[in-house]
Recover the amino acids of this structure.
């Protein structure tokens, strides 16, 4: 029997600011069966993609990306906030609603032509995922698909990513934001 993952995701109103409905995945990962089902569904989606690595975005993306990579028996690539990785990194700047941010990745972890799956816990506007996508593509690798546990379709992040030629798959959709 398939588990309804949406019922394990807690909604917290007015967090981090008034008017936002925060979709909290900590209640999903706190339940062993729901967490396992999440990883199993992501793995089933990836099996036919032929990816050699899973890349995931800090920090909640790591909660799904690392166990997914382990389940698939492939490598894991952390995409982090600035200053968190030792050694030589490559970076991608991106715009936020009010300002700029950056993501970084070790320069030597993805080879040209490698097939990558990009994972994060949630897609809203898609800004961070687009920056991670650009970062991975800068190595000459190919992002096969972007996977998200939660999608907020009203914020149109899926459309932004798909306009870059990358398919998007989400496990749970929540209308509104």
């Amino acid at each position: 029997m398939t588990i309804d993952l949406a019922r394990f995701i807690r909604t917290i109103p007015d967090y981090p600011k008034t008017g936002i409905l925060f979709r909290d995945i900590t209640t999903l990962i706190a339940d062993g069966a729901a967490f396992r089902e999440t990883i199993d569904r992501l793995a089933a989606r990836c099996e036919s993609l032929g990816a050699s690595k899973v890349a995931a975005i800090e920090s909640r993306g790591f909660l799904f990306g690392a166990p997914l990579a382990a389940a698939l028996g492939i490598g894991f690539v952390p995409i982090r906030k600035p200053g968190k990785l030792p050694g030589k990194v490559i970076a991608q700047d991106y715009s936020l609603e009010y300002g700029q941010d950056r993501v970084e990745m070790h320069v030597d972890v993805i080879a040209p032509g490698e097939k990558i799956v990009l994972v994060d816990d949630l897609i809203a506007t898609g800004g961070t995922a687009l920056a991670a996508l650009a970062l991975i593509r800068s190595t000459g690798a190919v992002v096969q698909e972007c996977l998200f546990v939660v999608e907020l379709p009203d914020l149109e992040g899926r459309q932004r990513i798909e306009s870059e030629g990358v398919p998007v798959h989400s496990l749970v959709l929540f209308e509104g934001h």
In short: The first helix runs from residue 26 to 29. Strands lie at 10-13, 21-24, 53-57, 75-79, 89-96, 99-106, 115-123, 142-151, 168-173. The chain is about 30% helix and 35% strand.
